[in-house]
Amino acid sequence: MRIAILSDIHGNLEALEAVLEHLSGESVDRVVCLGDLVGYGADPNPCCARIREVAEEVVAGNHDHGAVAMTDVSHFNPLAREAIEWTAQVIESDHHRYLESLPLTLGLSNERAMLVHATPARPEAWKYVFDPVEASSEFGAFTAQCCFVGHTHTPIGFVLRPDGRLYGVPLEKLRLEDGYRYIINVGSVGQPRDSDPRAAYAVYDEEAGTLEMHRVDYDIKTASEKILKAGLPTPLARRLSFGR
Ligand code: ZN
To answer: Which of 27, 45, 111, 115 is most deeply buried (CB count within 10 A of its CB)?
Structure first.
């Protein structure tokens, strides 16, 4: 089974469509999504509709919960809060119910991988894991070989070797070795923050035990203009072209 893993779409329909177009050429059997379908971007409803069409497994992100009043958004930064309040107003009731229904964690069919938006230890705490020190306390919280995460919008792999050594690796192509364990952040489709503005997603090949990152060009200009037209904060439009 070849599985496309998408995260942090954030209402960016142009980025999502470009990724779906790209993965159609990757002989993917299945699409899963690690949450944050909405927030920041101008197209929360079309993005929900597309993910509901294509993704078999979807977990909730903090922005999904924020949009349906299931998490406290007072700790969101002011721009994120303004965008989530706008999203909460425009989200259609059917998508509202869908976002409410999303689980915090899921396991993939072969039990070798788990899916969560932020971290496996306390998913609802929405903790950010940027380095191996922060990742070290998370490996005890899941039994699968691999945990796929999003949330930071920054692709990176954390590798736990059989001898206990833990380190971070840049993600392009990764072979998942027996006896090793992994926390893999697949980056963001709709608002990348690793200085590469292209949409990010990963393809996980269960049989081959490989993970490959893809970066996809999309129409940033249109996505930015829609953000401005919706009356959302200008920095949310501008940041898309910087990938920050
Ligand atoms: Zn996010």
So the answer is: 115
Answering whether pTM is above 0.85, one says yes
Q: Which residues have beta carbons under 5 A from ligand 1 (an ion)?
A: 8, 36
Q: Tell which residue, 43, 55, 50, 68, has the closest CA to residue 6.
A: 55
- Distance (Å, whole) CA 121 – CA 190: 26
How far apart are the two ends of the chain, measured CA to CA in Å? 33
| 2-241 has CATH 3.60.21.10 classification | yes
Q: Give me ligand 1 centre to Cα 179, in Å.
A: 31
Residue 162 Cα to ligand 1 midpoint, Å, equals: 31
The ranges assigned to domains in the chain are: 2-241
Q: Give me the average pLDDT of each 10-residue run along the chain (244 residues).
A: 97 98 96 98 98 97 97 93 97 98 90 94 96 96 96 98 96 95 98 98 96 98 98 97 95
